[in-house]
Amino acid sequence: MASGNESTSTTATELPLAFLRGKGLAATERASSDHPAVDVPLGEVVVALGHLKSEQGFDMLMDLTAIDWAEGASPRFTVVYHLYSTTRNVYVRVAANCASDTEPSAPSVVSLWPGANWHERECFDLMGVKFVGHPDLRRILMWDEYPYHPLRKDFPLAGIETALPDADVTAETGTRVLSAPMAGGPFVATSGEINLTEAEPRAKDESWADRRPRPDQEGLKQVRE
Amino acid sequence: MATEFSFPDSAAKAAKVPAGLVEGTEFQTEKMSLSMGPSHPSTHGVLRLQMELDGEILTKCDPVLGYLHRGDEKIAENMTYNQFVPYTDRLDYLAPLANNMAYAIAVERLAKLEVPARCQAIRVITAEMARISAHLMGLGAFGLDVGAWSVLLYSLHEREKLYKLFEELTGARFTTSYTRIGGVTRDVPEGWLGRVNAFCDQFLPILEETLTLLTRNKIFMDRTVGIGVISKADALAYGLTGPNLRGSGVPLDLRKDKPYSGYEQYEFDVPVGSKGDCYDRYLVRGEEMRQSVRIIKQVIAKFPDGPWYATDAKRIFAPPKDKVLTSMEELIQNFMIVTEGPQMPPGEVYFEAENPKGILGFYVVSKGGGVPWRLKIRSPSFCNLSILPKICTGCLISDVVSILGSLDFVMGECDR
Amino acid sequence: MVTANTELGYNSKVEGDVVVTRADAVINWIRTNSMWPMPMGLACCAIELMAVGGARFDIARFGAEVMRFSPRQADCMIVAGTVTYKMAAHLRRIYDQMCAPKWVIAMGACASTGGMYRSYATLQGVDRIVPVDVYVSGCPPRPEALLDALIKLQNKVKREPATHHLFSSDAPPHGVQS
Ligand code: SF4
User: N or C: chain A end with fewer CB closer than 10 Å?
Assistant: First the structure.
C-alpha cells in the first residue's frame, strides 16, 4: 500500500470511533488492514450510520454484506457496512455482530439509503440474515422457493439436491437441482494458520469424487430426441 | 383512484370516452402486467423486468435478477487467491482486464504488498484499454436498443482491434486472467506498446465518426434527452457509480479521488453531466473514451523500466518460468505458490476500483493461509440497476429500453 | 390409370431451367443455408457470439446472420453462456416454442458441461434440459470455432431424412420427441 494512504488512514482512524463515542454509542475499534473500522452493537447500527451520514459526510453506502464465522462459532454472523464520503474521499467500515447464531437478524437501513434495499435482499438470500424493517424482504438471486442460504459455511459449494423452480420442466426432462460434480477437487489448502501436514492441499469437497457415487445416476440422463 | 401520471401522448388524451363513462371523468384502463426478459435483446443478457402497465405507462417495475447467479463468492472461498483470477474475468466480461486489476490490488493491499512501477503502468494501460472496449460495446448496444444499428458495427470493428492487442499480451481475446497477486502473468511483448500507440492514433478519428452517428442524431436525441432523469441526490442514495453517477453531475472518479496503481501521475479530466438523463450518460461515456486514450498515451510516453512483478514477495508471486527451470530455490517457491496459494496474513480489506461500469469493490476477509475466508464482490451493475424501480415508474414502455441501454450494465457482474 | 413414371426422370415436354433432384436434397439445401439462430446469449460467450455477427468473422457468409429473438422464427438455438438452474426452465420453454425442425448448439464450456462453474447454482450442462446437436469447446470458443460448429451442424442437417415422414406413416415428423 502506498505510504500516503497509510498516513491518511492513521489520522482518520480515531475519527469515526471518537465521533461515535462522543455520540454516546458503545462503539469499539475493529481490527482492519486498511480503512478505519468500528464495531457497534447491533441495536445502535441505524443510529450510528445515521450520524455518520448526516454529520460526517459519509453520503454513500458502498457495500453491505455479512460474514459467517464458521458453523459453531459465536457470534457466528457479522453484518458489515462500507461507507464512502464523496466530499472527504474516505471510507469507514462499520460492523455489528448478530445476536442469534441460528436465526440472525439485523435492523434495516433502507430508511437511510434506499440503495440498501437490494443489498439487504441479497444478504438475506445468500446468508439468511433477516433485516427487520425491510420493506420487501424477498430472495433476489436464487428463486423464491429455494430452501437454503448458500453462502453459509455449512452449505457445500457443490450444492444440495432440490427441486427445480419449475415443476413442468422437471416433468418433461427429469432434471433436478443436483450437487455439482467436484471430482475430488478443488485441490486447495485450508484457510488459517495450521501445521504443515494439514496445510497440504487436498480435496475439500468429496460429494462427487471417484470413491463416492454421484448423487443420483438416473437423474443425470441426457435429454435425447 | 386517479392516476397521477400525465399522458404525454395527445392521441391517448383525445381518445373517445367509451360509453358508460361520464365525459370529463378520469379515463381508467385495466392494468396489464408484462414480463420483459430474461431473454430479450435489450435487457443485455438475462435481466427480467416484471412490469405493470397502464396503457403504455409503467405503474410498477420490479427487476428480477439472478438468472446468471453462478456462485462466484462461494467459489472464491474454496480457491487460492490466484485461482480466483479467471472468475474475475467473467464478472464484467466486457472489461476483464480492469476486473483482474481490481482484484489483484485488493489482495495486495491485504498482503501490504507494493508492486513495482512497471507493473502498475502495465495494469493502467490494460485497464484503460478495457474501458475503451467496454464503453464501445455499451455505445453499440445502446445504439442498437434505440434503433441505430450501424454504431454497433463500428464499435465491434474497433473492439476486434483491441482484442488482437489483448490476445498478443495475454493469450486470450477477453478471458484474459492477466494479473497475479503481486504482478502480472508476463511482461509486455516486444513492440506491443508501439502497436497500442498506433491503435490510439487511428482510434480517435474513428471514435469521432462513431459518435457523430449518435450525438446530433434526431431520433437518438428524441429517445434520450430528458428521459430517465436521475437526480444527484437519488444517484448517491442508490449507490450509483461510474458514468451513471457522473452523468448526474457528481464528479466521483476513484482514479482521481482515491488514486491507485499510479493514476495520480496521469493527467485526465472527469466528464460530468448536467441533467442526469440518458443523453448525458451517453455523452459521459463518449468523453471517457477520449480521456482513456489520453491516459494510455501518457503511460506509454513514460513507461518505466525495471521488474514487472514484486520481486520481494517470495510467498506470494510465483517466479517466471525460466528461473523456475534453472534454480532450485525458485522451483520450491513456485511449487508452494501453485499448490498452497499465495500466503496472506489475517485481516480484512475493502478495495474499490473505478471500472468502466462503475466502482467495483472487493471485500476480502482472511484468516491467514492461502484461501480467503469470505470474498464479497461489490458489483457496480447491481447497484446501478437498483434504481430501476424508481426511474422506470411513470415512464413510457419504449423509454425503458433507452434507460436500460444508458445504464449499461452487465449481468455477469450483477448476479455474480 | 397406370403410367410409366417418366415425368420424374426426364420429360422432353418440359423445357427450360429445370433441375431434377431429390426432395430431401432440396429441402436440406434450403435448411442448411438459411439457418436462423436464436441467440440465447446468457453470459460471456454471448460477446463472442456478437463478434461472430460482426464484420471480421461475418456469419452471414454461412446464411446464419439473421439473429431472431423470437423463438418462432428461429431454427437453431445457440446457447452461449452459463445456464443457471433459475434460467434453465426459461431456456427449455423457449426451446419448446421453436418450430420443428430445430437444432441446438451448446457454445462454450459452460453450456456444454457447466464449465468452470461447479457450484450450487449452475446447471451442469445444457444437455440435461434440451437435446444438443453440436458442442463447442472453449471458454469462450473463438469465433472461428463457432463458425466451425455451424458448418458441422449444416453437414449434419444435410444428411437428415427431411421428407421421410411425408412418405411413411409410422415415422414421426422431425423434431418431435419419440
Ligand atoms: S464458457 Fe467461459 S466464456 Fe463462455 S459463458 Fe462460460 S465462463 Fe463465460
Answer: C
